[in-house]
Amino acid sequence: MTDIKNQVQNINPNAEARDVTKLIEETGNIYEALAIIASRAKQLSVDIKHELHGKLEEFAVNSETIEEIQENKEQIEISKFYEKLPNAAVISMNEFLDGNLEYRYRDQKQEEEDLA
Predict the structure, then answer these.
(1) In terms of Cα–Cα distance, which of 51, 87, 50, 58 is closest to 75?
(2) pTM of the full predicted structure?
(3) What are the residue boundaries of the structural domains of the chain, listed by start?
């Protein structure tokens, strides 16, 4: 996965109305287009979650006492950045409309594997 900071640089984090005909252009079916976008959104949300947890683990304290909780400014900044990111569905919608999503159907994948 590319760096999420660069990927979402120019994406408006707010949901906005979309032209349905643009969604249908590539697949010919609105439901297929939405299924592709939803699958990519799931992938993105998992990737973002793993990336965030990886960065926050650097700040983890392995003590068994909860006497004092220290606030780390870097940790807070990282958390705020990820909170401000656009929703994974918004990112995947932009990827789809920009033509940056590659997809194939599972039946085609099986046929390709059978031919190889």
Answers:
(1) 58
(2) 0.72
(3) 18-63+70-115
